[in-house]
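Sample 1 of the test manifest.
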Amino acid sequence: MLIKCPYCGPRPSEEFTILGDASVRRPTSNDPATMDQWFDYVYLRDNPKGRYKEYWHHGGGCRSWLVVDRDTQTHEIFGTQAARDATLAENKKGNS
Amino acid sequence: MRYSVFSLLKNSFSGHKNWAPAWREPQPKKEYDVIIVGGGGHGLATAYYLAKEHGITNVAVLEKGWLGSGNIGRNTTIIRSNYLLVGNNPFYEWSLKLWEGLEQDFNFNAMVSQRGVLNLYHSDPQRDAYARRGNAMRLDGVDSELLDREAVREMAPFLSFDNARFPIMGGLLQRRGGTVRHDGVAWGYARGADLRGVDIIQNCEVTGIRIENGKVQGVETNKGYIGCKKLGLAAAGNTGEVAAMAGMKLPIESHVLQAFVSEGIKPYLDTVITYGVGHFYVSQSDKGGLVFGGDLDGYNSYARRGNMPTVEHVIEAGVAMIPGIARIRVLRSWGGIMDMSMDGSPIIDKTHVDGLYLNCGWCYGGFKATPASGWCFAHTIAKNEAHALNAPYRLDRFRRGYMIDEKGVGATPNLH
């Protein structure tokens, strides 16, 4: 697999480490009433067969966190974005 | 027909042309008492024990491909019960005991070979950790022996004992561990279940689960709707997809694990050896090939094939452990899709839907568990409650904080 890092260009996947599902959102509250949200965040996954957004870390390169849009059936990669940009874009979408 | 030396003799007179098929190919009935989704090792074993132990024979096993086309045919065939944590050893030891009597029980040669499983250690702290694990095993009545360097050398003189960075200092041996002919397990359970009246329906993919008023009614398939009173899911890597049909989101991710077999060589390795530095495990099949594997690729996948970095990593670990295999050629490699759970331990439980039962989360240790998994799942389905052996493997343990995390890496499915 080649992952196209937005800073370094296409690089082999062994330069990267995967963290996992980029769709989960860390709850903002410590209130015990939000336990269900925490349970969901820590343990439950959609685990889709098909397109999937996931966090990768370019530890063997520029050391930035990325969001990779990949197909779990074919391993095809559709796009890569810096994790910060992806989150900012999503927050903007959520606010508007 | 019962297989025996007499049936073999009888059929040899007709040139072995008149053997009956080992199982029927029935059309689905309108309704069953129990439907099992997944015709792999665990699903077939569940159907077998439902019929044999609980007298429930109006059962169908639905398999979307051909029988045993999933992980039962894609593993490295190792059986063992060398666990540390409370909850694991009684279950896996029961599995090993079932393996020991399996061939007589289901009248099929599964080539169960208790050739031993040896885990190597390379440092004093690792020796202490293995001693602790060995003691935990003994407390649960499981056999274990801590070997020193010379005892390991006697067993396997070809290992890299004098590696400068990771010298081999000894190993933890479970003599009752070993290997089994994996396809034989699927065939034996299928035949045993079929003889007792279970319908095994191949090329039958479940496309939906019908639930009314919180109770399972049946499944939609590519062969039409089939009703059932109880439904058991044993879909391994596809568990997430099937469970989603019942509105469930699980603590499971699907990952690809690769395995390899080398060209056939003369008898060389008469046990199972695992490396204590990298993740590498190897045995030699009766055909002569070295069967080996290592870690997951690490990324979520349903592809049943992996990538080169993992191939390189596994083979590096293998050559570091046994330098002599460097010149052996790899014949084949393949991938299987593992249902990796959030604590590395399985789930055998009821669900929030009445009549729906779940068997998943086997990570890459599902093969050795096949008999006990089927046995416990059958008990859970028949009695509508968990057996003491699978009571620790409840679905709600994640919410309640009762994880069974052998590797101690937390909620990171790709690291278990």
